[in-house]
UniProtKB/TrEMBL annotation:
Domain Aminotransferase class I/classII large: 59-391
Keyword Transferase among UniProt keywords: yes
Record carries keyword Transferase: yes
Keywords in alphabetical order: Pyridoxal phosphate, Transferase
Stated family: Belongs to the class-I pyridoxal-phosphate-dependent aminotransferase family.
Protein name: Pyridoxal phosphate-dependent transferase
GO molecular function, one term: transferase activity
Pfam families noted in UniProt: Aminotran_1_2
Amino acid sequence: MVKIDPFEVDHWILTRHARAKHSLAHSYCASLSINDLQSYSGGSNDVNTSWASLLSKPMGYGPMQGSEDLRSKISNLYSDKSSEDLPIDNIVTTPGASLANFLVLFALLGPGDHVVVQYPTYQQLYSLPASVGADVSLWKAKENEGWRLDLEELKQLIKPNTKMIVINNPVNPTGAAIPRMALEAIVEIAKERSIIIFSDEVYYPLFHSIESTDRELPPSILSLGYENTIATSSLSKTYSLPGFRLGWIASRNPSYIDTCVNARSYALITVSQVDEPLASLALGAPTVQNLINRNLALSRHNVEVVQSFIDRNSTISEWVRPVGGPIGFIKFTKSGRPVDDAEFCTRLLDKKGVLLVPGKKCFGDGYDYQGYVRLGFGVRTEDLEAALDALQRFLDEDYAGVPVV
């Protein structure tokens, strides 16, 4: 039997969400309805037309790798002047990014392989390689240097059997970004040994605090001219449509897609034929850019709201201000010592009904990231402000009783 570690972040949210009056535990921008898509479609009648078409469409399996129309629109997401267009045959759709990640790691790794995984990050990205028998080394970001990744350390972590480097950009849970120059350096390091670079880009291109003209604005890993690259993403985070359950795997190397498609065949045949046409609508012009612009504006405003909260409580809280994704990693201390973050989150939920995610339990290995909590600020601004007001009352009334580590 394969041993898989408990998926801490999902278990934490699943077992507590029903009790929350204010949830800041989720990591996506405020979700939209199908009707909402109409207002982002530039005034066209595409939503009604697509829905009417769906009602009369025979519900067969559909194309194995996903509809050509949808994969063409996914390919457009990776189009830029610096790289060739991504062929649609180098894309396969999946029910969400979680399964996309699962397929990449399950299909391409096994016993005898070594993997270097950026850390902290989404637990799936390091627990799954370990579960299939791979040797995992954690490439720890420097929290006292703005969550910077040390490229010299990466070189030291690489072994003769290193098969894959796993990154997440923007980063869950910190909201940090791996800048262009660092990505280019990672590619050069990987090229020396033909190592696969797998990038979870579920928050790409939601870089709310980096100017579009900044030379260090991160591109997709697929844009850097290296064949052995894989990217995954979905409609859940950046596009506010998690209920569509539509993700994808894209690669410059068609053999990786073939391997993932084969593995996918053991688990499912095709993606829902209701989800795919609606996803194609969401990723079409001008809707896709309007959705990105909506969530950039929401994130830019809400990150300021959280920053003001941290400034008011600067003696006990701090963060490296996030630059991408609607998430941040906040550290709470008492007299310079980190609080017990799980106990902090438990008491906060019990006393004030606010749900946060504890860092050590859900994103830490051993004693890493004590005192940290992940806060999702992608909710509607009024909901964020209400949650932070309740959190402030907890700090004023109950924080003194929270134990330190």
